[in-house]
Specification:
By secondary structure, the protein is α/β, with parallel strands linked by helices. It has 2 domains: 69 residues, no CATH class; 148 residues, NAD(P)-binding Rossmann-like Domain (Rossmann fold, 3-Layer(aba) Sandwich), CATH 3.40.50. Helices cover 39% and strands 20% of the residues. It is built from 8 helices and 10 strands. The chain has a 6-stranded parallel β-sheet, with helices on both faces. A 4-stranded antiparallel β-sheet has the order 2-1-4-3, sandwiched between helices. A hairpin with a 2-residue loop joins strand 3 and strand 4. Helix 3 crosses helix 8. The relative contact order is 0.11.
Length: 236
Amino acid sequence: MDLHSLKALNKERRNRRAAILMTELESGTDRIVREGDAIPGELGEAVKKAFRTGISTGVTVDGTAYFLMVALPKPRLVVVGAVHISQSLAPMAKVAGFDMEIIDPRTAFATAERFPDVPLHADWPEPVLAERPLDPYCALAAVTHDPKIDDFALKAALDAGCFYVGALGSRKTHAGRVKRLLEAGATDEQIARIHAPIGLDIGAISPQEIAVAILAEIVQVFRSRGVAGVEKGKAA
């Protein structure tokens, strides 16, 4: 690996940006490919798949062999709301490989007793997200049902380009949320990215089932990035 490429790859890692070290095997030359870089043809499709799966792989295109070494940031799940759904979601998210943390200024809910071994911020989203900003490898789930808490976090997630933004509530509740977010400066395109009602449509009723639906939808969206035509159900 070229020293310049190694430094560039480490810089992307430090800044939680996805990158691939693409090496032409015969010549040994390599280059850094960043997510979103335009690479045409079959090689470009292989690069997109590598970013989507996170799996390093070899590929041969037009007789030339390449090795794609993938470096993805670990996905981070930020849940706004220390509620029953979050209690069930926390252990499942850990098993699925997500770094999860919870934000809720309501200190009666945000307690270490209710959320052992989970990073917990008993504060409003504004100061927490200023200190720990969101990025495209973050998912945000807003589940408090309180616009004073949820709305800022949702707008911050949309502005940061989080790969997943979901919000709990009925369609009527979401209509009011949309109005508020538009007044706060969100665009129609951003609003369309919100998964609401949150979660895959599996008929979930209990907090535990809703947590399953939410995590399943987050995984679906994460693994289908860049794939057109993927249907997404709704639940909760």
